[in-house]
Amino acid sequence: MNISTKLNTRKVFLSIGIIASLGLLSSCDVLSEAAGVVLADDSGTSAPALTNTEVISGLKEALTVGITNSVNLTSVTDGFLKNSSIKLPFPEEAIKVKQKALDWGLDGQVTKFETTLNRAAEEASKEALPIFKDAIMKMSVQDGFAILNGGEGAATKFLADNTTSALTAAFAPKVEAAISKVKLTEVWNPIITKYNTAMNFTGGNKLNPDLNQYVTERAIIGMFKMVALEENKIRKDPLARVSDLLQKVFGSIGQ
Questions:
Q1: Which residue has the higher pLDDT, 177 or 255?
Q2: What is the C-alpha to C-alpha distance for residues 25 and 16, in angstroms, rounded to an integer?
Q3: Is the dihedral of CA 130, 135, 140, 141 positive or negative?
């Protein structure tokens, strides 16, 4: 091989090396961008990436804000009763009882019964905050990034998966005590007794739903509905991000 051929060969290899290097750098840039290593602010300059600690701290703060607001809204007088999205209605399995009671002119008793149902839920909701906070404190890094990137309701689902059993166990005795406190059975018993007596003559099925279970389940469903509203508010509304950390963490989504 002559000198000219050798030089040409070296140039070819050098060119291949340069191209490969540029391709590698380009791939790294794509990976970095996909991983969210660098975030751009409104001015077009680069800002430091979110650390794992910031993400977890920001999500814990967001969840704490959300659950505190939710409990404050539901555990007060009329927190359930005057909120149409979570108000406990007459038990569905006993809707025939309600209709009969209205037919018999027991409108006042029906209204009082539905009011006391919701008073029991409001009372039980006071037990939710420490249970929610315990689950939040146990959040892992993997949980955090799944919640951050999971879209609307992801944080609420995390709480539901990790607290429903504990909430049920905590709510049940409180609901039972609340039912006794607001004298729910005193309102319910005359309605259901009259209905079941009528069923003796008509041959219909007697009913007496478990009010403790009904209030417990519906109170928990109502709590999670309120938590979801608070979570999605923080995701969508910059004004709901009440700290610099919340602004940084949730402001990074979609950038």
A1: 177
A2: 14
A3: negative
